[in-house]
Structure formats: C-alpha cells, structure tokens
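Protocol step 4 of 5: obtain the predicted structure for the target chain.
Materials: sequence only (see below). No template structures provided, no constraints applied. The aim of this step is simply to have a reference model before the mutagenesis design in step 5. Sequence pasted as it appears in the construct record:
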Amino acid sequence: MRLMLMRHGIAEEAGPDTGFRDEPRALTDDGRARIEQAAEGLRALGIQASLVLCSPLVRCRQTADIVAAALGVEPVEDSRLRPGMELEDLADALMRHPGADPVLVCGHNPDLPHVVAELTGGGSVDFRKGTLAVLDVEAVAPRAGRLRALYPPSALRAIGSA
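Step 4 output (structure tokens):
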C-alpha cells in the first residue's frame, strides 16, 4: 500500500480565543495559504489518494479539507488519529477502509515521525507543519515499510508555485 502522512498546517496558539484548549485551534490565514500552495504541489507531483483520513481536531480537519479537495476526494475523520496516535491506532483506522490505496493521513507531531520510524525501522524524520512523507508499506506494522519520499513544506509550496 502507498501510505502518505502529512502534518497539519500552521495553527493559532492555544489562548483565550480557544479557551486555552488544543482541540479548537484553527489554521491561521498564513497556515491556510501555505497548505493551499502545498496542495497545488501535491497535484503538480501527480500525487493521488483514494482516501484522506484525518484527526478530528480543527486544524487537522481544515488541512485535510484543502488537500482532499486538491486530490478530488472527501476527507474522513477518525478519532484514533488524534494527538497521541500510535502505529496500532493507525492500523485500526486503516482496517476500516479495506482496499483503500493510496491513502493520505493528516495528523500531528510527535506522532507522525514516530510512526515513520516504527514503520521503517529507521530514525525519526523532521515533520514541520505541512510536511509529507510517502511510504510503501507491506503491512501497518513495525519494519514493514519503506520511506519513498519526504517533502518539506517549502518544497511542496515551490512545486505548487512553479
């Protein structure tokens, strides 16, 4: 399976506007613009997804909405992808969509770099906001995947602007 993992875009800080809570933090205007450019980069690269899964947190859902629209699919929220997601949670979420391939998952730090490290048996990768990792996985299990590409957000935006 082709599995793509993307971190949400730049979001507002948890402060008085969010009741000092993490869940309602939305993308900033800059965060939205950057994800829109990155989504154009995905399209320019010819990246496709049959399924876009995302955490239900606002900033992640907003990111998934933008990316899914660029890829021509509807995003699906899954509570297992909330902050604190582990490889088993990702596997459970994917099992609810048998045959979906390729799949793009929009999630959070530090979960995404840990999942990549566990899938590949390698070290942690840098997941700045808007980063995309592309993996080929035999199963969603330890050491069952290979990292095919890692696109920093600046690269995706540059490709989308070209």
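Step 4 remarks: The chain has a mean pLDDT of 95. The chain has one domain: 2-161.
Proceed to step 5.
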